[in-house]
Specification:
Eight copies of one chain form a homooctamer. Chain A is an alpha/beta fold. The first copy, chain A, is built from ten helices and nine strands. Chain A has a five-stranded parallel β-sheet, sandwiched between helices. Chain A has a four-stranded mixed β-sheet with strand order 1-2-4-3, with helices on both faces. In chain A, helix 5 packs parallel to helix 10.
């Protein structure tokens, strides 16, 4: 089975952050192979989209070394580094339903030593909720905005906040929301300039964009 | 040629506003037939999407009775009624490029005796432009919001203003803006509740929604 | 958990109708937080898309204060105001399968004090069913038309009835009906003028359009 | 050049109607090859989508044998058979802009010896126009309905008229009309049973459906 | 509950075939209302898309009067008329997986007194299978062709057989087959002339097209 | 039941490889009919997309003659020919999740006597994994590349390797990956010349392309 | 300007065929840079999608060394190698309009020393045209099938001919033909096994697939 | 006319870069209004998508103050600041046709005082071209990757280079390239982690993402 996996361990050196394991679509045996390889090298791993039952199917000795978060379905295998003292990323969500995606981002950041601030449920239909936090947001070098449906939030934040804006469209909504497609297109066609966009529900990817920027900032 | 046309003259009595002539796709001969029918009955007509050269191709005696607006490509044939003294519809556009569509709406309203207020170029990327006008907008029973690209404006207006909101997505933009499709979907999936949406670039239709509402209000 | 939720309580004052809770996608804990906040303020709440099992998972003391409708999956938490004496909204459905969406609209209207008339199963394939009710419909200031598949009904009603027409496309149908997309597009491209359209299956949104119009009418 | 063309002359015997020449996309030389082959066999040909300038580019001796219709861009090369005395096909259009497509159908029918009745501009937004002709339509074995935008007309006709209904969606309209896609989908998802549908703007194809049915009827 | 249903009983007189009950999306109570209405009038009913468990949920006295076919999920409630002695419709399927849709068509035809011939699994990848039956097919006035994936079969049959061809695209296939969309588009864009197309998986609709044609033939 | 099936046994003679049984969508009875026909002729059969429970539902005497592979859901019924001594096809996958599709291809090749090499998990995000194998790949006449998401792998391999490249896009991924559509489009729009593409997840089809090429090579 | 271009001259050694110049989208200056580079190395170049006016804009000394084909818009700059004596590729087109794409393929093959056979206008609507050539086609190791609209031809050829089949969907057709999308999808979802597909109108790519296969055959 | 424009002059203070003028879709009069406003304030302006003839239509006194670049259709009105001494952004393009979009980005950066490096025509079909520059690219904090068609380049660069990667999909290509949609989707679904994506052909937006990041870096 081991030949099914060619893990990219050198990525951490090459890019500054390590390969995460996208658990969805992998068998228990394949996950065990990867965990065993990581344990053998004494390194920690981040697993994303690990369903509850996929976690439960892992051997107990592996589960014992895993810190699991139900909302975001992320798991950290092994030790966590101490986070940086400065909080340099803010996460903003339009609605309660977007929290799971935001949490995947904050867990990914935390795995790589970055703490972050979550500001939840400040969609533009009640604009006062966002306006109350704008000054605070303006002090962050990176702001990740998580929104589904019409994704008007990245445009409004992008017009008010000078930092790097990463929009994560989510699959929240129904009908023409179309599994996040409308949110994606709205973020890409934003009237606010310089919005960086990642795939639908890709909290992990947004965190990686932030990590690249933070690393480049030194 | 006259049998090509079965004009719905009773519509004005039935619905409270008359059939407009969608000039695009009609030949000069067909347009003349309609104008002749209207002249014979002594009634005025609104023509939409009448291109410059289609106007020029009409006989001089008809052109003499036409008031034409280049930006919106609308024409009024015949006399105009005196407008109502009260202004009950506000038109808001996100960008300068959306003005042509807004003008089609205001011309349609004016044809049916309704004056309206245009507030242009107040897209959310510079939110202060809209905020300066919000209190004024809150006093209008009907607000038509015209926006392309990500169409975040209807959501923000819809969260701040209590009147009937009619969103007109426009084909402004490129790439994923997709000829207005993203703006349309964003308006339909708006996080602000109760946004009424019409077809892309359909300023005429938005005005008709307003007319139905104003007529029902008495 | 409370920080996950930033409820827009001022919306009722701002827009004239209150924020509803879209229950789909929210956890039991999040729903409880919201209900507790509302109970503390002594206000009533409307919940939409609340599945049977999500209702069953709520604590008994909350369930006791809830009036639940299975067909539309709507719940009213707390007291209901006395409805207005005058019935100003008519709801028309094309088929029996569209009733759930229409009921979401009528429940939303009722929550905000508006009674409404339901006329069911009058699709245009048997046109006599609609023609028998046209005169009655012409007396309503607002008519909500709920239809899936080809959504020919809004066009026919829109050509016959002068009031504000709000079309709700539904996901009824299969194949090219495409989850309501064809009904949505047909309503937006209607040959009848001035049809206001909302998202697929969005009975709640149609009711909000009606509430905006009724409020503006005074 | 002649090897570019393998004309299906046996089709008339095999199917009861002959191959038409889709002129769009063919060079003048290729068209000449086909006309020469037909002239050599002494048979007549129908050409569809023959643009004005493509006609003008043909040699004079061929043009002299061609009966051309500008509206439908169809040409008949050679002699026409005497039409059947009985008129068995009715053509109904929703708007004036749909006439070109309907004319392609009637010209195709006429080429194969079938006369037909055109009823124009009876879209459902002014339902009285159609209702005035329903009894007449009920006597036709085949009714071709030509409509763009929302294509509500085939559904209404299909619910009232017992004959074979062939819907031809047209590219009339803008925005979500999407070049005829919405009309096509609406016709296919019609709430009226047994609507036969052909490609967008395919008047020729609708006529061929009618010819197959008429031939089968004997 | 009875007001949820406005059954179109006059349809049989108006169109020559009766309204079928699309069982999918209807509750047991709604189905019972309809069956009761039919029983009271002493007429038979066809139900389509009636799932096994929806059948099982009906009261025993109704189930006793139902003839159910599992493959096509169709049910006949009440008596069946004696079929016509002449078989005038042939049904051709490309693959075994298309049989369920073909059976819905043949059951619909049989309900209205028309017998039909089924020729299964003759897709063009093994062309000899179809060629062996072509002469037989050429004698039928109506041929219904049921095919998914690339739907090449309607084009090949349409080029060989003179009768009315009704193509039913099916949702057979995966990937770009896209739930029948490719089959639908291929049938509509067929290089063979005069193919009449209905919605994806709509065996019932194809049968209705055939019934309209057969009725018109007298 | 046997008339439901018209198996294309002559295909092996005609094309050089036999018809496989696409088990998905076929009933147990239909599968038994086919197995019985094959057993009667003494030939082996390949079954694809045979789910675990569909296998379990087969009679024991058939199961005893079946070699089943869980990952690819393929089954071989009957004897296998000895494979060719020379390995002429290489299979390359971008990720672990693409292995099931690659295995369907290798099992199909093996059924027809062709051995193949699998190189797994060498996606371009860690380019060193592929570069380590390029020289080896350059010696194969046929290389099948299996990749989902952005499907950059076929382009990179196609620029480095001279053999026939067959790209199989897979449904791996989420959001804009869209069930394999993006991978499919990227493979078709590849900047590397001469990439042959098959349907999403169609490992069987890719193997057939390879078999056609190998047969032609002699 | 020269730094705009990094021509892949080593491709011929690496892949067995050289980089072609996609002229569309390149300026005259950029084309001249490339031609100059090639002239300097004494090698020949193939240019595709070179419009008439782009050719005319080139300096006379370059035009003098170019062999241009109007139908396919391909140009050969420099000398042509003597073609192989054996003809190993057959090109089949469904209609006359597909010839331009087929010619791009045959010109590409010829540039690389491969002669090919063109069989034009044998679409399945007149199946006899193809059947007359099937035995001949069965002797070719590679058959390129060029078809638009419903693209039924690759499926029929693929079921009859054992060689490597490369389908090139074309943008021929209108309405649902959708610029070649339906032809593309039909080829990918073909019921005939092992059809290799390239991008719409990509005759060049199909030839490259053939070249890869022929090179691998030795 | 001035009321058509509400220019967002405070943006430079708010976001750190000024509003650009999207010239496409604006009339000469509107452009003059904006230039006049800017001249009055003594500030410079960047205009994007300014067509040659739109430039020519401007009054001579304005043209005299404009630095225009034909390839990217960008114009700088007024003085340019001295660029930063350190070059912190690299621009990489897949093909020559992508240069116009890259140039829009580099001109936007230069307008805001940032110099940048252009590396052109290094698409992955000839991987050696990119590999020769990788070490150089690894030293840049921001790398903008411009690619059309399959957009494999951002994935390969993203796997090799640690800086912030901004992918700009372009409309280069035909058929399934679909005006840049495939490139966009491929970039969003990239197997390389942390790719930031902007709208199709949006070089301006990519530069703004870079500016936000550079500003945050200090």
């Amino acid at each position: 089975m081991s030949s099914d996996v060619t893990f990219d361990f050198p990525r951490a050196q090459r890019l500054g952050f390590s390969e995460a394991v996208l658990a969805a679509g992998k068998s228990t045996a394949q996950l065990c192979t990867i965990l065993e390889l990581a344990a053998g090298r004494g390194i920690s791993l981040l697993l994303t989209r690990l369903a509850d039952d996929a976690l439960a199917a892992l051997p107990a000795q592996y589960r014992a070394q895993i810190d699991y978060d139900t909302l975001s379905r992320t798991a950290v295998f092994g030790d966590l580094a101490t986070p940086a003292s400065e909080m340099r990323v803010a996460l903003v969500t339009a609605g309660t339903s977007d929290l799971a995606v935001a949490r995947e981002a904050s867990r990914t950041l935390r795995f790589h030593g970055q703490a972050s601030l979550e500001i939840a449920d400040v969609g533009v239909a009640g604009l006062w909720r966002l306006m109350a936090r704008v000054e605070e947001l303006r002090s962050y070098p990176v702001v990740i905005v998580v929104a589904g449906m019409d994704a008007a939030l990245p445009s409004v934040v992008g017009g008010l906040v000078p930092g790097l804006i990463v929009a994560v469209p989510t699959s929240t909504g129904y009908g023409v929301a179309a599994g996040g497609t409308t949110a994606l297109h709205a973020a890409l066609a934003s009237c606010a300039p310089g919005i960086a966009v990642v795939n639908i529900d890709n909290g992990y990817g947004a965190a990686c964009v932030a990590l690249r920027a933070l690393n480049a900032m030194g």
